[in-house]
Structure formats: C-alpha cells, structure tokens
C-alpha cells in the first residue's frame, strides 16, 4: 500500500467578504488560480504530472459554478489533460478534499494530486444557491421538527455546556490577540502567498484581524440571533452569540500538494507531513455544531492515540461555543487549542477553511517543534471531519 505524504501547503491572505474587501475585486477562479500557481512554483513540480485537482467549495453558484478547480487550473495556464472535481461537505469541504487526496494516493489511484479550497464570499453570497428554497424538505422536518439555523444551534450549544457571554467574548478576544501576534512575529509568512488584484495591488496579509479587540469592547454587541421570534420559541435561552464571537465572512483559497512517498523521493522533494488517521461523523442535526466531539473521539480511537499526545489542536471557530464545548469534553490546555487564533479573527471562507486550518497548524507545529496536530470542523446538518497528522523532519 503506498504511503501518502504532504509536500507543501499554502493559502491566500484572508480578505473581508464584502464589497471593498481586499480580495473582492478578484474573480473567485483567479483567487484560486493564483494560490495554486504559488504552490506549483514553490515546489517546482511539473503541473502536467498532477493527476487530479480536488477542490472544496460550498456555494457552487455564479463564479463558483463551473467546477472552479478546473477553471483555476486552466487560468493558471497548465496542461488541459489534468481534471478537477468539486467537493462539498459544507464547512469541512476543504478538509474533505485533503482527506480524499490522501486516500486516493493510499489506494494507488494517484501518485500526485493537489487538494484545495475556495470561497469568495464577497462575490458569491452564502446561500445564494438555495434560491430561498427549503433544503431539508418536509420529511426531514417531520423527523426533526426542532431544526434551527446554525446561529441558534450555537446558542443551544452554549446553553448545554453552560458557557457564559463573558467566556465567549474572552475567547473571541483571544482569537484576535493570537492571530495578531502570529502575524506580527512573521508566523504566517511561510503559509501566505501574495495575491495580485486586477488593479495591481499586492495583498500579502490577512485583512480580518482586529488588533486591540477586548472582551469589554465585544460585550457591547447585540446577540444577533435573539430576535423576538426566537426568544418566543426558545424562552429558556440566554442569548449571547454576537457578530464579535462568531466567525467572519471572508474571501480565501488554499492548496496542498499530496503525493506518494516514493514519488516524492524520486523527485527529490522533502515531505512536510503525513496523515495519521481521519474520521467523518454525523451528529445531532439540531445542535448541529457538536460533531467535532465524536469525530475527535473516533479519530483518536482509529489512530490508537490519546489527546495528550497531540501537540496542538485546531477546532474551527465557526462560533465561540464550538471550540469551548469541545474543550469541555477534551480538556487540553488552552495554549494547545487554536494557538494562532481561528476563524473569529482569520475568517471562515467556507470551502477553503479546512485547508487554512491545516496550513496554519502545520506551520505552527514546525515553528514550535511539535509533532502531532489534530483539526476538526463542524459542518451544517450535524456533521464533522477530524484529521490527525504528523510533522515529518
């Protein structure tokens, strides 16, 4: 059975996902294409030897509707014989693309494959592909009559784990503080590639980090899901999820080069990491955001490892209650959890977030001497991916 290794991983800067954001003037395909081209240039591989380009993307409409990986590959000027496929597992789409790429190499289907992710949320609005239709349908709603939007699920998670508004705001402020510290110390320099906008502007850094954020400032924000209607339906909830302790809407892309260890050796490429184990689970679709908890338990069991062996963990900060509830079940030291901040500070470009988490975690481990990393993503519908990887030196 071939061994799969990860040779390199890059990501774009994170741009605010609204008109006027740093990357909002760039077509989604070109954002992904430039990120892909940077990966190819850094590794020096012949793009014609790549056998597939697996791309996570959630909102497959408008500029992201035409198999964005295929269009990005062509936009980069690479050989037309290389195909692409779009993968959608909600917020875990990019992570699933990476896991499928690794699995394809282990299965012997590929020798060289690129996994990636894209979401231009300023140009392709979240949910625009639904056209105001019901994605569940009457039978699902009959089985689960208490289904709620994700933001309300975040409130239910906070209530179940007894998380206070102060805890959520303190955690959110920490995210910005850690991300700012990583950026200012050069910690992100090895993972971010420069993106050029149509007017020639070079975007080199994350736009989303809000330096000087404090829990006291965040305390002044309204609970966005505590509408009169929601309060009437759920009178027991002490509404506390705000725009400040939830992930930011952003534009972003990422790309990871995966190949067999044998091919990497033949090409003289030094692998940076390997996947130890992965898992994917379904969980309560009403709570929805709790999937990382059973996904972590499953991947630890599959790997034969304990959480104490993991040097750093990335639990996607879709909402502050998600990593805090996870930590309540896996009580790791706070310093090991999202050590460079997360989506609250860096944003959550849906299809690309799994690649962003992996890239940031890999660089953190390399720079701090860590060996094992674990990442997990909550996903709409009550699903989650979890992956353990090992840094190779």
From TrEMBL:
The active site is at 91 (acyl-thioester intermediate), 348 (proton acceptor), 378 (proton acceptor). Keywords: Acyltransferase, Transferase. The keyword DNA-binding does not apply. InterPro entries: Thiolase, Thiolase-like, Thiolase_C, Thiolase_CS, Thiolase_N. The keyword Transferase applies. One of its GO terms (molecular function) is acyltransferase activity, transferring groups other than amino-acyl groups. Residues 270-390 form the Thiolase C-terminal domain. Residues 5-261 form the Thiolase N-terminal domain. PANTHER family: ACETYL-COA C-ACYLTRANSFERASE, BLR7806 PROTEIN. Belongs to the thiolase-like superfamily. Thiolase family. NCBIfam families: AcCoA-C-Actrans. This is Thiolase family protein. It comes from Nocardioides anomalus.
